[in-house]
Amino acid sequence: MDNVSSGPEPQPTVAPQNSNPDPGPRAGSPGLLQCCARCLVGAPFASLVATALCFLGVALFCGCGHEALTGTKHLVETYFSKNYQDYEYLVDVIHDFQYAIYGVAGFFFLFGALLLAEGFYTTGAVRQVFGDYRATVCGKGLGATVGHKGRGPRGHRPGRSWELVCHCVGKWLGHPDKFVGITYVLTVLWLLVLACSAVPVYVYFTAWTTCNSIANPTKTAAGIGNLCTDARMYGVLPWNASPGRVCGQSLLSICKTSEFQVTFHLFIAAFVGASITLVALVTFIIAATYNFAVLRLMGRGTKF
Question: Could you tell me the pTM of the whole model?
Fold first, then answer.
Protein backbone atom coordinates (compact mmCIF):
# COMPACT_ATOMS: atom_id res chain seq x y z
CA MET A 1 0.00 0.00 0.00
CA ASP A 2 1.29 3.42 -0.92
CA ASN A 3 2.08 5.79 1.91
CA VAL A 4 -0.20 8.80 1.73
CA SER A 5 1.18 11.97 3.09
CA SER A 6 -1.20 13.50 5.58
CA GLY A 7 0.57 16.82 5.86
CA PRO A 8 3.08 17.97 8.42
CA GLU A 9 3.17 16.10 11.64
CA PRO A 10 1.50 17.95 14.48
CA GLN A 11 3.93 19.54 16.89
CA PRO A 12 3.59 18.75 20.58
CA THR A 13 1.62 21.34 22.41
CA VAL A 14 3.72 23.40 24.77
CA ALA A 15 2.05 25.24 27.58
CA PRO A 16 2.59 28.96 27.21
CA GLN A 17 5.01 30.37 29.73
CA ASN A 18 4.05 33.30 31.83
CA SER A 19 6.01 36.20 30.41
CA ASN A 20 5.38 38.27 33.51
CA PRO A 21 6.26 36.13 36.51
CA ASP A 22 5.39 37.47 39.87
CA PRO A 23 8.54 39.31 40.98
CA GLY A 24 7.37 39.55 44.52
CA PRO A 25 7.44 43.01 46.04
CA ARG A 26 7.50 45.76 43.45
CA ALA A 27 10.95 47.23 42.87
CA GLY A 28 9.58 50.75 43.11
CA SER A 29 8.11 50.15 46.54
CA PRO A 30 10.94 49.14 48.88
CA GLY A 31 10.15 47.95 52.34
CA LEU A 32 11.55 49.08 55.63
CA LEU A 33 14.72 46.97 55.39
CA GLN A 34 15.47 48.14 51.85
CA CYS A 35 14.87 51.73 52.90
CA CYS A 36 17.29 51.39 55.82
CA ALA A 37 19.89 49.62 53.65
CA ARG A 38 19.82 52.31 50.99
CA CYS A 39 19.93 55.04 53.60
CA LEU A 40 23.04 53.42 55.09
CA VAL A 41 24.64 53.33 51.66
CA GLY A 42 24.29 57.12 51.57
CA ALA A 43 25.49 57.57 55.14
CA PRO A 44 26.85 61.04 55.92
CA PHE A 45 30.33 60.16 57.13
CA ALA A 46 31.10 63.72 58.21
CA SER A 47 28.00 63.81 60.40
CA LEU A 48 28.78 60.36 61.81
CA VAL A 49 32.29 61.44 62.78
CA ALA A 50 30.99 64.70 64.22
CA THR A 51 28.34 62.87 66.25
CA ALA A 52 30.91 60.46 67.68
CA LEU A 53 33.20 63.37 68.58
CA CYS A 54 30.30 65.29 70.08
CA PHE A 55 29.21 62.43 72.33
CA LEU A 56 32.80 61.69 73.34
CA GLY A 57 33.60 65.32 74.08
CA VAL A 58 30.42 65.95 76.05
CA ALA A 59 30.93 62.74 78.05
CA LEU A 60 34.46 63.82 78.99
CA PHE A 61 33.45 67.37 79.78
CA CYS A 62 30.40 66.50 81.88
CA GLY A 63 31.76 63.44 83.67
CA CYS A 64 35.22 64.76 84.45
CA GLY A 65 33.99 68.28 85.15
CA HIS A 66 31.44 67.03 87.67
CA GLU A 67 34.02 65.04 89.62
CA ALA A 68 36.63 67.80 89.38
CA LEU A 69 34.24 70.29 90.97
CA THR A 70 33.57 67.86 93.79
CA GLY A 71 37.32 67.46 94.37
CA THR A 72 37.82 71.22 94.36
CA LYS A 73 35.19 71.69 97.05
CA HIS A 74 36.88 69.10 99.23
CA LEU A 75 40.33 70.67 98.77
CA VAL A 76 39.06 74.14 99.68
CA GLU A 77 37.19 73.05 102.79
CA THR A 78 40.10 70.87 103.95
CA TYR A 79 43.16 73.07 103.37
CA PHE A 80 42.16 76.66 102.61
CA SER A 81 39.35 77.46 105.03
CA LYS A 82 37.93 76.00 108.21
CA ASN A 83 34.90 78.28 108.38
CA TYR A 84 31.93 77.08 106.32
CA GLN A 85 30.64 80.62 105.88
CA ASP A 86 33.80 81.46 103.92
CA TYR A 87 33.14 78.89 101.19
CA GLU A 88 29.37 78.60 101.48
CA TYR A 89 28.90 80.64 98.30
CA LEU A 90 31.49 78.49 96.51
CA VAL A 91 29.55 75.34 97.44
CA ASP A 92 26.35 76.83 96.00
CA VAL A 93 28.13 77.78 92.78
CA ILE A 94 29.61 74.30 92.44
CA HIS A 95 26.20 72.71 92.91
CA ASP A 96 24.71 75.02 90.28
CA PHE A 97 27.45 74.10 87.83
CA GLN A 98 26.90 70.41 88.49
CA TYR A 99 23.18 70.73 87.78
CA ALA A 100 24.01 72.67 84.64
CA ILE A 101 26.29 69.81 83.58
CA TYR A 102 23.34 67.42 83.76
CA GLY A 103 21.37 69.71 81.47
CA VAL A 104 24.27 70.07 79.04
CA ALA A 105 24.65 66.30 78.78
CA GLY A 106 20.95 65.76 78.03
CA PHE A 107 20.77 68.64 75.58
CA PHE A 108 23.77 67.56 73.54
CA PHE A 109 22.57 63.96 73.42
CA LEU A 110 19.29 65.06 71.83
CA PHE A 111 20.84 67.77 69.66
CA GLY A 112 23.57 65.44 68.39
CA ALA A 113 20.99 62.82 67.43
CA LEU A 114 18.93 65.50 65.68
CA LEU A 115 21.92 66.79 63.73
CA LEU A 116 22.82 63.22 62.74
CA ALA A 117 19.30 62.71 61.39
CA GLU A 118 19.57 65.99 59.52
CA GLY A 119 22.88 64.83 58.05
CA PHE A 120 21.29 61.61 56.80
CA TYR A 121 18.44 63.40 55.10
CA THR A 122 20.39 66.26 53.55
CA THR A 123 23.18 63.97 52.37
CA GLY A 124 20.61 61.65 50.81
CA ALA A 125 19.02 64.58 49.00
CA VAL A 126 22.41 65.86 47.79
CA ARG A 127 23.42 62.45 46.41
CA GLN A 128 20.05 62.17 44.77
CA VAL A 129 20.69 65.51 43.05
CA PHE A 130 24.04 64.31 41.73
CA GLY A 131 22.63 60.90 40.82
CA ASP A 132 24.96 58.87 43.02
CA TYR A 133 22.22 56.37 43.81
CA ARG A 134 18.54 55.81 43.16
CA ALA A 135 15.97 57.82 44.99
CA THR A 136 14.84 56.08 48.14
CA VAL A 137 11.77 56.44 50.27
CA CYS A 138 13.81 58.35 52.84
CA GLY A 139 15.20 60.67 50.21
CA LYS A 140 11.81 61.46 48.68
CA GLY A 141 10.55 63.13 51.84
CA LEU A 142 13.29 65.70 51.88
CA GLY A 143 13.42 66.00 48.12
CA ALA A 144 9.84 67.22 48.21
CA THR A 145 10.61 69.91 50.76
CA VAL A 146 14.10 71.21 49.89
CA GLY A 147 14.78 72.68 46.50
CA HIS A 148 11.95 70.79 44.68
CA LYS A 149 8.78 72.52 45.81
CA GLY A 150 6.05 73.51 43.43
CA ARG A 151 6.00 70.42 41.22
CA GLY A 152 2.32 69.98 40.73
CA PRO A 153 -0.73 71.51 42.36
CA ARG A 154 -0.54 69.30 45.44
CA GLY A 155 3.17 68.56 45.60
CA HIS A 156 4.47 65.14 46.59
CA ARG A 157 1.77 62.75 47.78
CA PRO A 158 3.25 59.45 48.93
CA GLY A 159 1.07 56.44 48.55
CA ARG A 160 2.41 54.17 51.23
CA SER A 161 2.68 54.43 54.97
CA TRP A 162 6.50 54.39 55.14
CA GLU A 163 6.69 56.99 52.41
CA LEU A 164 4.27 59.12 54.42
CA VAL A 165 6.35 58.75 57.59
CA CYS A 166 9.59 59.59 55.79
CA HIS A 167 7.89 62.50 54.06
CA CYS A 168 6.70 63.94 57.38
CA VAL A 169 10.09 63.52 59.00
CA GLY A 170 11.78 64.94 55.92
CA LYS A 171 9.46 67.93 56.00
CA TRP A 172 10.46 68.52 59.62
CA LEU A 173 14.16 68.11 58.88
CA GLY A 174 13.99 69.85 55.53
CA HIS A 175 15.31 73.16 56.83
CA PRO A 176 19.11 72.83 56.89
CA ASP A 177 19.48 76.61 56.98
CA LYS A 178 17.89 76.70 60.42
CA PHE A 179 20.14 73.92 61.66
CA VAL A 180 23.17 75.82 60.40
CA GLY A 181 22.08 78.95 62.26
CA ILE A 182 21.32 77.12 65.50
CA THR A 183 24.62 75.21 65.39
CA TYR A 184 26.53 78.42 64.67
CA VAL A 185 25.01 80.17 67.71
CA LEU A 186 25.67 77.10 69.84
CA THR A 187 29.30 77.06 68.69
CA VAL A 188 29.78 80.67 69.74
CA LEU A 189 28.29 79.92 73.15
CA TRP A 190 30.46 76.83 73.48
CA LEU A 191 33.54 78.98 72.95
CA LEU A 192 32.63 80.71 76.21
CA VAL A 193 32.28 77.32 77.91
CA LEU A 194 35.70 76.34 76.57
CA ALA A 195 37.21 79.54 77.95
CA CYS A 196 35.61 78.96 81.35
CA SER A 197 36.88 75.37 81.44
CA ALA A 198 40.40 76.67 80.87
CA VAL A 199 40.31 78.82 84.06
CA PRO A 200 40.53 75.97 86.63
CA VAL A 201 43.24 74.32 84.52
CA TYR A 202 45.25 77.53 84.76
CA VAL A 203 44.69 77.77 88.53
CA TYR A 204 45.76 74.21 89.19
CA PHE A 205 48.70 74.52 86.80
CA THR A 206 49.90 77.60 88.69
CA ALA A 207 49.70 75.74 91.99
CA TRP A 208 51.50 72.76 90.48
CA THR A 209 54.27 75.03 89.15
CA THR A 210 54.64 76.63 92.58
CA CYS A 211 54.98 73.19 94.14
CA ASN A 212 57.73 72.31 91.67
CA SER A 213 59.57 75.48 92.70
CA ILE A 214 59.24 74.49 96.35
CA ALA A 215 60.53 70.98 95.60
CA ASN A 216 63.53 72.46 93.73
CA PRO A 217 64.55 75.57 95.72
CA THR A 218 67.77 75.96 93.74
CA LYS A 219 65.76 76.92 90.65
CA THR A 220 64.14 79.95 92.27
CA ALA A 221 65.53 82.99 94.07
CA ALA A 222 62.54 83.36 96.40
CA GLY A 223 62.39 81.68 99.77
CA ILE A 224 60.32 78.57 100.17
CA GLY A 225 58.12 80.26 102.76
CA ASN A 226 57.23 82.99 100.27
CA LEU A 227 55.95 80.55 97.63
CA CYS A 228 52.20 80.36 98.18
CA THR A 229 48.90 79.61 96.50
CA ASP A 230 46.20 82.06 97.50
CA ALA A 231 42.65 80.93 96.73
CA ARG A 232 41.34 84.41 97.48
CA MET A 233 43.10 86.02 94.51
CA TYR A 234 41.15 83.76 92.11
CA GLY A 235 37.78 84.64 93.62
CA VAL A 236 37.33 81.18 95.11
CA LEU A 237 37.20 82.58 98.66
CA PRO A 238 36.43 86.08 99.99
CA TRP A 239 39.35 88.25 101.10
CA ASN A 240 38.40 87.90 104.77
CA ALA A 241 38.69 84.09 104.61
CA SER A 242 41.23 82.53 106.93
CA PRO A 243 43.81 81.31 106.16
CA GLY A 244 42.85 81.59 102.48
CA ARG A 245 46.31 80.60 101.31
CA VAL A 246 48.86 77.83 101.82
CA CYS A 247 52.63 78.28 101.55
CA GLY A 248 55.90 76.40 101.62
CA GLN A 249 56.03 72.77 102.64
CA SER A 250 52.34 72.72 103.49
CA LEU A 251 51.54 73.56 99.88
CA LEU A 252 53.99 70.93 98.67
CA SER A 253 52.30 68.29 100.80
CA ILE A 254 48.95 69.21 99.26
CA CYS A 255 50.33 68.90 95.75
CA LYS A 256 51.61 65.43 96.55
CA THR A 257 48.19 64.16 97.58
CA SER A 258 46.32 61.94 95.14
CA GLU A 259 43.25 64.14 95.50
CA PHE A 260 45.07 67.16 94.09
CA GLN A 261 46.58 65.14 91.26
CA VAL A 262 43.28 63.51 90.31
CA THR A 263 41.37 66.79 90.40
CA PHE A 264 44.01 68.51 88.27
CA HIS A 265 43.90 65.77 85.65
CA LEU A 266 40.09 65.72 85.70
CA PHE A 267 40.00 69.42 84.86
CA ILE A 268 42.45 68.80 82.01
CA ALA A 269 40.22 65.98 80.70
CA ALA A 270 37.17 68.27 80.94
CA PHE A 271 38.99 70.94 78.94
CA VAL A 272 39.97 68.37 76.31
CA GLY A 273 36.35 67.19 76.15
CA ALA A 274 35.16 70.76 75.60
CA SER A 275 37.72 71.14 72.79
CA ILE A 276 36.55 67.91 71.13
CA THR A 277 32.94 69.11 71.33
CA LEU A 278 33.93 72.38 69.65
CA VAL A 279 35.58 70.43 66.81
CA ALA A 280 32.39 68.37 66.44
CA LEU A 281 30.21 71.49 66.22
CA VAL A 282 32.49 73.05 63.60
CA THR A 283 32.33 69.81 61.58
CA PHE A 284 28.55 69.87 61.80
CA ILE A 285 28.51 73.45 60.52
CA ILE A 286 30.76 72.67 57.56
CA ALA A 287 28.77 69.59 56.53
CA ALA A 288 25.38 71.22 56.97
CA THR A 289 26.44 74.40 55.15
CA TYR A 290 27.74 72.41 52.18
CA ASN A 291 24.56 70.33 51.92
CA PHE A 292 22.35 73.38 52.23
CA ALA A 293 24.31 75.28 49.58
CA VAL A 294 24.12 72.38 47.12
CA LEU A 295 20.40 71.85 47.66
CA ARG A 296 19.60 75.54 47.36
CA LEU A 297 21.73 76.15 44.25
CA MET A 298 20.76 72.95 42.45
CA GLY A 299 17.13 73.44 43.38
CA ARG A 300 17.18 76.82 41.61
CA GLY A 301 18.83 75.37 38.56
CA THR A 302 22.14 77.11 39.15
CA LYS A 303 25.14 75.19 37.85
CA PHE A 304 28.53 75.08 39.50
Answer: 0.70
